[in-house]
Prior knowledge:
By secondary structure, this protein is α/β, with parallel strands linked by helices. Helices cover 34% and strands 23% of the residues. A seven-stranded mixed sheet has the order 3-6-2-7-1-9-8, with helices on both faces.
Amino acid sequence: MLVAAAVCPCPPLLVPDVASGAAPELDPLRAACADALAVLAAARPDLLVVVGAGESAHVWEGGGTGTLRPYGVNLTMRLGDGRDPEPLAPSLTVAAWLLEEARSAAPLHACAVPAHAPAARMLELGRGLAELADRVALLVMGDGSICRTVKAPGYLDERAEPFDASVARALGAADAGALAALDADLAAELGAAGRAPWQVLAGAAEDAGLGGELLYDEAPLGVGYFVAAWS
């Protein structure tokens, strides 16, 4: 049963060594992520499942390792026991850094889901994850639209801000139904890779009776970043 969830974005710039001189700009985002992870720890889960966007689907039972070398930092991050030889998806590598900062030692699994994954499949995956233990917590890694400003990676799209606002409302209200109803085609057009992970959360949270709190909702780099805690 799902007892808690934390939603965080996954830009590599969250890691100060990657951000370098720009690191202070994202300090409020890092602080919000730390607060969300504290909610997970307080729930005392039997199993923590980390779900993030990836190029292809993969499950790391017990964890794996990932590298930040593609971002100019010779740093390897371990998630859980790190025994799976398949490299972690970048979103899960960032999650590994967050969990290390939080000194989390909860038993865990991790899975990557591609941005194009059908909503129905993500909902079913979430339902299955919630049944893996009596007390399951999710750490859900994913970004919103990449089109919030003219300098954003996807340039400016007037649909981006309303889309991100709908995501923020759903996350703040722990509204699993609203997350389940997100338009996959629109999310893809706006580059919102978090859509699939959020719908895994929606499936896991069905009938869980959780409340939500939105801890961060900004687009400092022209990309929608959200942090939320459900418990």
